[in-house]
Amino acid sequence: MNVLESFVSETMSLRIPKNQGEKALTLLRSMGILNREYKVSRDQEYLYLPLTRELTPAELGGLKRILSEFEVLAHKFPESAERPLKLFDLLEKKLPPYVLASLPTAIDVVGDIAIVEVSPELETYEMAIGEAIMKTDKKIKTVLEKSSAVGGVYRLRAFKTIGGQPKTETVHREYGCIFHVDLAKAYFSPRLSYEHSRVASLVGPFETVLDMFAGVGGFSILIAKKHEDVFVYAVDLNPDAYGLLRKNVLVNRVEARVEPVLGDARQIVNERLIGVADRVIMNLPEKAVEYVDVACKALKPEGGAIHYYTFSDAPKPLENAKSQLTEAVKATNHRIENISLGRIVRGIAPFAYQVVVDAKIK
After folding, report:
1. Which domain holds residue 303?
2. pTM score
3. How far apart are alpha carbons 110 and 113 in whole angstroms?
4. CATH code, domain with 284
């Protein structure tokens, strides 16, 4: 590891009260804008969290919804005595120069498991890559390579172990919540961390929320942890996800505010949840459009909010998603009163994105 002389350097920072430190650190990590080359600084009242760059207006808006008090300003930081190891640096002398440009740049970390996509030209070196990834972060005990696309009714993919312990089960922590996860049996993406927090921050007092495709509870449990006066119906078709969801509800002590329900959302709503919800979360981007009628049916007679997740292509992914939702709502006896937000959540392929549209339905 390269040890550098510590010196003071000025960079952009997020100044927050100390009691919001854990929440803010988790948020900045999930957004990929926490500068790890500097140590967090503090004074008697505030923490100063180093940023990698200036924030966009959309990012500022997201922070305002989640953090009650903060300020973005320039701050002088002591540089970290040890810079984090980079994957390129560790493999520069082990791999031929012509493949170094293909090294993965996106590594998802769930608990103590790192998940990576290895391009075909790097398959010969996948074990070396796995070993190097473990050296970049001491908490990583397993490196999994994606060996199939997400598919099937339960949105699962196959994995291959290329470093550390051969396992797919782990415990993931996010915004003070604990999630037991099995990546081979239930879909879970750490890239949705910001969305979990953003949606939870929008929930109002005494709301009833329907999480139509709840998985292991990423949205449902955080909502219940943040709001003691809400109730969440967390529905999922996958028995393994449902089992993990029940476990996570108990571990996070929100059993009085979250009801796990096993089954298809359409059937469950038609049987028992018509007209009960103030807010519906639709995080099943492959098929959400097929369930818009169900979401509308679940809303209370006076209407409510829908968080609609879908896949959409360039050049106008947000406009396409908004049009898709608008047309699907028109086919019911409801209408869109307003669309408060359209946001690209993440890229899924060249010129293809997962997006979210927040809409008020009457």
Report:
1. 189-361
2. 0.81
3. 5
4. 3.40.50.150
